[in-house]
Amino acid sequence: MNYSEIILLAIALSIDACVVSFSYGLCLEMRHKRSAFALALTTGFFQGFMPLLGYFFTNIVKSYVAPYGKWIVFLIFMYLGLTFIFEAANKSEIQKLCLNMKSLLLIGIATSIDAFSAGISLSLTSSPLKFSIITIGAVTFINSLAGYYLGHKLKIFKSNFLEIMGGVILIGLAVKNLF
User: Fold this and answer.
1) Which of 27, 52, 71, 123 is least crowded, fewest Cβ atoms below 10 Å from its Cβ?
2) What gap in Å lies between CA 46 and CA 115, rounded to an integer?
3) Domain range annotation of the chain
């Protein structure tokens, strides 16, 4: 992947964190800078760390999957994109949220599982690792902060649109990778 594709990937991967932060911004009664930064740091860290794990995990089995690399990348991105869209279409309501260390850890893991798969794709496409993980982490941090403050300001805005756009970006990357 080239740099612009990595930036698009980072934006798509950060959508989950943005939506979660948006939900917290909607539901927490008071705007706490501490809550916003805790969410942003947690999601940014996990989104940057999980591709690193995926990247190195792939190196262990690279000889087995390299011949099928572009198809595996296609399937991973297609799956992630369709999952984003499907989940956005099937959301019914925002649940009451609690922000503590346990919930931050769970949010970090849950929003970054797709980043692990992206790390495998980064390895298969020989993408620059350092640029990728820094970009993914930084974009997620920024989008998480933006999501929190947007959620607090715009309590009537529907977050499903953001997830659908993230899914469309991932599907576009999947199709582009075949050519």
Assistant:
1) 71
2) 8
3) 3-177
- Inter-axis angle of helices 33-65 and 3-27, to 10 degrees? 140
Instruction: Return d(Cα 13, Cα 137) in angstroms, integer.
Output: 10
Q: Alpha-carbon distance 123 to 56, whole Å?
A: 8
Q: What's the pLDDT score for residue 56?
A: 87
Model-level pTM? Answer: 0.72
Q: Are 18 and 143 in contact (CB under 8 A)?
A: yes
In the structure encoding, which two tokens stand for residue 175, read together? 């199709």
Residue 133 CA from chain centroid, whole number: 12
Q: Which residue has the tokens 């495998």?
A: 120
Across the chain, which has 179 residues, the per-10-residue mean pLDDT values are: 92 87 72 83 95 83 68 76 75 56 83 85 89 96 92 66 69 77
